[in-house]
Amino acid sequence: MTIIDTELKSFSHRSSDVIDALVLHDSEGFTLKQTLAWFADPTHRMSMHYVIAQDGNVFRCVPDECKAWHAGASSLFGKENVNDFSIGICLIDTGPEGRFPDEQTHSLIQLCTDICRTYSILLNRVVPHYAVAPFRRTDPHKDFPWYEFLNIIGCMLVND
Q1: Tens-digit pLDDT profile for residues 97-138
Q2: N or C: which end of the chain has fewer CB within 10 A?
Q3: What pTM was estimated for this model as a whole?
Q4: Is 100 exposed, middle or buried (0-12, 13-18, 19+ CB in 10 A)?
């Protein structure tokens, strides 16, 4: 997996040094170019740490140690402001239905496994956007294979 660094300014400093959650998003119909352009404009106050294109290319938009603006008003297990302690990953998804391409899914699995190892993130803290903002968000869409995805990451982490 190759990570391509981008020069975005849409982030701020974390109020905590602890990173213990991963939040998955999808671009809800926007292309890679549109998504990166949206995140590049700081007036939108929206960004992700990583964006994964449908061809599997991974774009790092915000350094892990900084706070990306991806979860909005949110909470996880009763803790508010999920942006302060999580990493946000966006999957480019140009349609409302259908599978995510294998190349994209493979990159996502590898990236999430690496991040979980680096920050000792538990699998129950790898969550969809709708889990931290349930009344506002629905991404990633219902076709995302959550059980298979988490099982594969769990097996990769156990077999190290």
Answers
A1: 667 899 999 999 999 999 999 999 999 999 999 889 988 777
A2: C
A3: 0.94
A4: buried
